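FW: tagging you since you asked about this chain on Friday. Here's the raw sequence from the shared folder, copied in full. Didn't touch anything.
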Amino acid sequence: CILEIGCAAGATGNELKKRGGVFVAGVEQDPEAARLAREVLDEVIEGNIETLDLPYAENSFDCILFADVLEHLIDPLTVLKNLRKYLKTEGTVVASLPNVQFHGVVHHLVEGNWTYQKEGILDETHLRFFTFKEMENFFAQAGFEIGQVEETLDPVFKDYNPTYPATLTMGRITINDLSEEEFRRFFVFQYKISARKKVVASQYFDEPEGADSSELYIEEMLAKGKTLE
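HL: got it, structure written out here
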C-alpha cells in the first residue's frame, strides 16, 4: 500500500500500479489534477495535506511518497510528523528535495541575488529550502532515520578532478579545505531520500500503565537494558 502526497494527475502512482498488486492512494489539492488522478489510482483524497484528516487507520501504508512536495508546504515538519502514524513499523518515506547549497544558487547569492523562477531550486512556489544537513535534521525531528540517499548531480561535476582537501571558486567567492563529500554537495541539484521510523525504546520494553517519559520510567528502562546487556 502506497500513499502519494501531491499525486498531481497520478502519473507516478500509475507507474507503480503497473507492477501489479499495488494499492495506491493519493492526496491532491488541485481539483482538476485530483479528477485525473482518480482515473488511474485506487483512491484520491482532494484537499490540502496540511489541514486534512485522512480516513485511514494507523499502520496502513508500506510507503508514503513525497515527490517534490515538502518544499511547497508551509509547515512540512508537522505534516511529516502527523503522517508518521499511517506508516507501518517497517514502512518507508520516500521524498525528493532540492538542494539550496547548489553552486548556482550560492553564486547568485554572493552577487546579492535571490531571484525566484518558474522552475528549479528557486521555483516561485517553494516555501522551504534545505541543504543536505538540514534534510538530516528535518527527518530526525520528525522521528525518521535516513537509510538511502540518491543524488541528481550537475553534469559539470564530471569535469572536475580536484585534489582533496579541495578549493571551489564560484564567481567572486572561493571556498577552501573542502572534503570530497563537502565538494560534491555543491553540485547536487536534488536529493532523493528514503527514511524509516526511528526505533523507539518502548518497542523493546513494556512501559508501565499510565507512565510517560518520566525520570523514573527512564531509569527502569535503562536498568532493564543493563540486564539484557
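FW: The two ends are 37 Å apart (CA to CA).
HL: agreed, and The helical segments are 11-17, 31-38, 76-83, 103-110, 132-141, 180-185, 215-228.
FW: great, closing this out.
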